Amino acid sequence: EPEVTQTPSHQVTQMGQEVILRCVPISNHLYFYWYRQILGQKVEFLVSFYNNEISEKSEIFDDQFSVERPDGSNFTLKIRSTKLEDSAMYFCASSAKGPVNSPLHFGNGTRLTVT
Amino acid sequence: AQSVTQLGSHVSVSEGALVLLRCNYSSSVPPYLFWYVQYPNQGLQLLLKYTTGATLVKGINGFEAEFKKSETSFHLTKPSAHMSDAAEYFCAVRKSSSYKLIFGSGTRLLVRP
After folding, report:
1. Does any CB of chain A come closer than 8 Å to the CB of residue B14?
2. Of B57, B58, B50, which is closest to residue B32 (Cα–Cα)?
3. B57 CA to chain A: closest CA distance, Å?
4. A9-B35-B83 Cα angle (round to 5)
5. Calpha distance A111→B60 (Å, rounded)
6. Of the candidates A26, A44, A53, B92, which lies 20 to 30 Å from B98 by C-alpha distance?
7. B81: distance to nearest CA of chain A, Å?
8. B51 Cβ partners below 8 Å, 6+ apart?
């Protein structure tokens, strides 16, 4: 069964550094998402992306964050200047259609640790 | 604003016993409701969803959930727990006008032999 792939599984970075989290969605999917889960807290929506633009973003997704689909297969989340509070598990997801009409398929996550 | 409350961060049942994981939501409009499961070191997997129509929804692995509008609940049940059901379960809600899933805090299900 096709799956969403995220790399790396664990990333350690220093505060203030830029980090790029990578995702390969399922190949025929058109909608892409990033969620995060800070340890011990809820899974939180960051952003959704469709037709090469952001369709919705949360208040967490400020100017430090950006997303890109650079080559038609990868979907990346960039954090420009990481803060300690960015430490979390980041999940990428994709869906063939909108999130009601087709289920979200989640990757296994990237654990980001900011020191 | 929409929110989801899952009662009980941990639920422990014996193998073969009924599983009941509780979820209550608040929403100003009819919501779409979901249950996801997360096994260790894996992503979230959709168990079942309610959008419209029949209020009793069947999902994978023998799970089902019932949408009760009067109680604003969407509890997840399984008649007989299996050891492989041990995982974390998340209830989520979405407005029809939004791409955003709002998750509950999760319930970790432990299954005792």
Report:
1. no
2. B50
3. 15
4. 75
5. 28
6. A26
7. 25
8. A100, B32
Give dist(CA B10, CA A28) in Å, integer: 37
Instruction: For chain A, list the strands marked E by DSSP.
Output: 5-7, 10-13, 19-24, 31-37, 43-50, 53-57, 65-68, 75-79, 88-95, 105-106, 110-114
B contacts of A43 (beta carbons < 8 Å): 44, 90, 101, 103, 106
Mean pLDDT across A7-29: 95
Nearest to B99 among A55, A103, A109 (CB): A55
Q: Tell me: the pLDDT tens digits for B67-78? A: 999 999 999 999
- Residues contacting B106, CB < 8 A, separation 6+: A42, A43, B6, B9, B38, B88, B89, B90
